[in-house]
Amino acid sequence: MSGWEAENAGERASRAPVPPSDIDLALTAQLVVGWAGEAGEERRLGWWRSDLVSEFGGEDLFRRLLPATWPWAVLQGAREAARRRDAELRRQDHDADRIVSLFSLGFELDERIEERLQALKGSGRSPEEALPGLSLVYDRWRPEAFWMWVDGHGEADVSPAPVGRRLTGAPPLALDALIRKLVAGFAPAADAYPLPHFRRSP
Fold first, then answer.
1. Shortest CA distance to 45 belongs to which of 155, 158, 186, 165?
2. HEC string for the chain
3. Where does residue 139 rank: exposed (0-12), middle (13-18), buried (19+ CB within 10 A)?
4. pTM strictly above 0.85
């Protein structure tokens, strides 16, 4: 664990517990962005080269391999593709440990979101039932619907940075506010993954 991650974990441990609804908000945002960023036969934004959440791509494969959990598996795979692209861009920064992004929120939060995903995956509930915010994923892909979803998270002031879009100010302490700012930072539309992010103070 890096220094800022240890500090972040200590700070959060001393505050009130993070509401489960905020963990679900973060997980939903990660899954939606992972889905929206896919390329492939059913091309969406094309930010990463995966084709998992599509009838003749990952769905066909995972239905046969994981008949009970395939709806979660395809979303998890798209989320992993997004996480890797996010990490690749962060590593290009001179001080990557200070970057806070949708897929790198700090050790404790990242761990809790992953645990929540695994719990939901084993719950027997469908993704749409467990996380109603995923309804966008189960409709026909329409770019305007995705950008309306982004706009629904509010506004964020951003400026260009070497590795993406830097959001101004300090990252909000409340997880729900942090997620809303990071998602809002995806606007306006970009041809490549824009990596909206905050930079923590040293």
1. 186
2. CCHHHHHHHHHHHHCCCCCHHHHHHHHHHHHHHHHHCECCCCCCCCCECCCCCCCCCHHHHHHHHCCCCHHHHHHHHHHHHHHHHHHHHHCCCCCHHHEEECCECCHHHHHHHHHHHHHHHCCCCCHHHHCHHHHHHHCCCCHHHHHHHHHCCCCCCEEEECCEEEECCCCCCCHHHHHHHHHHCCCCCCCCCCCEEEECCC
3. exposed
4. yes
Instruction: Specify the length of the chain in residues.
Output: 202
Given a contact cutoff of 8 angstroms between Cβ atoms, the answer to whether 82 and 68 are in contact is no
Two tokens, residue 89: 């861009």
Supply 58's token pair: 């990952």
Determine the distance from the C-alpha atom of residue 173 to the mean position of all C-alpha atoms in its chain, rounded to a whole number. 18
pLDDT (tens digit, 9 = 90+) per residue, 33-77?
A: 999 999 988 789 999 999 898 887 788 788 888 888 999 999 999
Number of structural domains (the chain) is 1
Dihedral of the alpha carbons of 147, 73, 140, 156, in degrees to the nearest 10: 0
User: What pLDDT digit, counting tens, does each position of 152-197 carry?
Assistant: 999 999 999 999 999 999 999 999 999 999 999 999 999 999 999 9
Based on C-alpha coordinates, what's the Rg of the chain?
16
User: Are residues 12 and 163 in contact, defined by beta-carbon separation less than 8 angstroms?
Assistant: no
**Domain extent at residue 12:** 3-199
